[in-house]
Amino acid sequence: MKNHHHQGHAQAAPAAGATPSHESISERAHEMWVEKGRPENCSKAIWLEAEAELVETQSQTPLNPDISIAGP
How many CB atoms lie within 10 A of CB 45? Predict the structure, then answer.
């Protein structure tokens, strides 16, 4: 009997406050579109790719959150 679990359908929820702005997604999507050679009819796919990239980037936590910037 085969196990029919579909991994990859579940999406990780972005961390609180990690939702990128429409403007930042737009800017990144445009950069990606240019990098890909300005293809036609794939704006939605590029938008989603840019959004996912920005969510991932914004949800990363610092390696050492205990570092303070306080002076001597």
Answer: 13
For the chain, report the end-to-end CA distance as a whole number of angstroms: 66
As a whole number of angstroms, the distance between CA 51 and CA 46 comes to 8
Cα Rg of the chain, angstroms: 18
d(CA 45, CA 26): 13
pLDDT single digits (tens) 8-56: 434 444 444 568 999 999 999 999 999 999 999 999 999 999 999 999 9
Pure H helices in 1-72:
22-35, 43-59
Whether the model pTM is above 0.90: no
| CA–CA gap between residue 46 and residue 25 (Å, rounded) | 10
